[in-house]
From TrEMBL:
Originating species: Eubacterium ruminantium
Protein name (record): Helix-turn-helix domain-containing protein
Gene3D superfamilies with a match to the protein in the record: 3.90.105.50
Residue ranges of domain Helix-turn-helix in the record: 11-60
UniProt xrefs under Pfam families: HTH_17
Length: 62
């Protein structure tokens, strides 16, 4: 089950990703820095592309 994201945001911060998935900061960093296709680095900060994250979740549930 995928929860609704806050107000039509395209990118989630690491904190928002933690809240969205119910995971800790260490796991969130691992996920966005991995080669999953949804992590985006802008400067020194990492974000998760919500659309790609949801597709990744759907693909990994099957």
């Amino acid at each position: 089950m995928v929860l609704e994201a806050p107000v039509n945001k395209r990118l989630l911060t690491l904190k928002e990703l933690c809240d969205y998935l119910g995971i800790g900061m260490t796991k969130a960093r691992e996920l966005v820095r991995g080669h999953n296709g949804f992590g985006i680095q802008i400067g020194a900060k990492w974000y998760a592309d919500l659309e790609k994250l949801n597709k990744w979740i759907d693909n990994n549930l099957q």
